Amino acid sequence: MQSKHARAVSSLSEQQQKDGRCLSCHSPDQVAQTQASVSCETCHGGGQYYSPEYVMKDPELARLVGLVDPSEKQCRSCHDASSPSLRPFDFKESLKAIDHWSAERARRAARTEAPATPPSTAKK
Ligand code: HEC
Ligand code: HEC
Ligand code: HEC
User: Fold this and answer.
1) Residue 35, phi-psi category: left (phi > 0), alpha (psi -120 to 50), beta (remainder)
2) Which among 4, 69, 99, 115 is least surrounded, fewest beta carbons within 10 Å?
3) What total number of domains does the chain contain?
4) Which residues line ligand 1 (CB under 6 A)?
5) What's the domain range around 91?
6) Is residue 56 part of a domain?
7) Quick check: pTM over 0.85?
8) How far does residue 37's CA lie from ligand 3's centre (Å)?
9) Atom 14 (ligand 1): residue with closest C-alpha?
10) How buried is 37 (Cβ within 10 angstroms: 0-12 exposed, 13-18 middle, 19+ buried)?
């Protein structure tokens, strides 16, 4: 909710918030879905089925019910030469700036790699 994507529409003036030329990148789903700014669904597709937390914590299930991994090409549909960026869009670097998955993946990996209770400490 605090990310620049989540608040992209608020970078626009009141006048610009009615201008389709700005909304196409700053709030592409607003007209059709009343979903403002660059939302989860802008990148991941319709979230009707994957949005429950227990689904999103299960990577296979989430993708089975519609969560899409956005591609570099998808980012570049907005981060193109016309965007007011000082440096050309660097996909790898940009991913770091919006990372909201590494922490959960690390927790998941730790859970699956944790050794089972060794037999010596198991209650007899
Ligand atoms: C629908 C258009 C759109 C798509 C798709 C999009 N972005 Fe953005 N992005 C924006 C806009 C607009 C801003 C500027 C938001 C603002 O400050 O008003 C932005 C800002 C950013 C920023 C700078 C702000 C920050 O959080 O540090 C990064 C980094 C970024 N995007 C990375 C990405 C990556 C990586 C992808 C693909 C996985 C992506 N974007 C896909 C529109 C888009
Ligand atoms: C092709 C996609 C695209 C369109 C169309 C677009 N923007 Fe953006 N805009 C971006 C992206 C991407 C960024 C973020 C650039 C970055 O930081 O890398 C951005 C950033 C901005 C920012 C700076 C936000 C900040 O505070 O960091 C403003 C202001 C802005 N746009 C205004 C506008 C206005 C006004 C229009 C319509 C006339 C418009 N944009 C149209 C993609 C677009
Ligand atoms: C600018 C595009 C963008 C936006 C907006 C965005 N995400 Fe993501 N999300 C990504 C990218 C990129 C990945 C990493 C995908 C990969 O590894 O290929 C990701 C990964 C994820 C994953 C997968 C985690 C895993 O363990 O596999 C979940 C769940 C997720 N995002 C949920 C959300 C939610 C919820 C929101 C809204 C609050 C959101 N995302 C907004 C781009 C975005």
Assistant:
1) beta
2) 115
3) 2
4) 3-5, 8, 11, 25-26, 28, 38, 42-43, 70, 74-75, 77-79, 94-95, 97-98
5) 72-102
6) no
7) yes
8) 15
9) 8
10) buried
37: phi > 0 → left, psi -120 to 50 → alpha, else beta; which?
left
Residue type, 60: E
Q: Are 36 and 66 in contact (CB under 8 A)?
A: no
How far apart, in whole angstroms, are the C-alpha atoms of residue 10 and residue 27? Answer: 10
Q: Cβ distance 50 to 56 under 8 Å?
A: yes
From 26, 29, 39, 40, give the residue whose CB has the most ligand 3 atoms within 8 Å, as the site to mutate.
Answer: 40
Contact assessment for residue 67 and residue 60, using Cβ atoms and an 8 Å cutoff: no
* Residue with the two structure tokens 């660059």: 38
Q: Is residue 119 part of a domain?
A: no
pLDDT per position as a tens digit, 18-62: 999 999 999 998 877 678 899 999 999 999 999 999 999 999 999
Ligand 1, closest atom to CA 26? Answer: 12
Query: Is residue 85 included in any domain, yes or no?
Result: yes
18 inside domain: yes
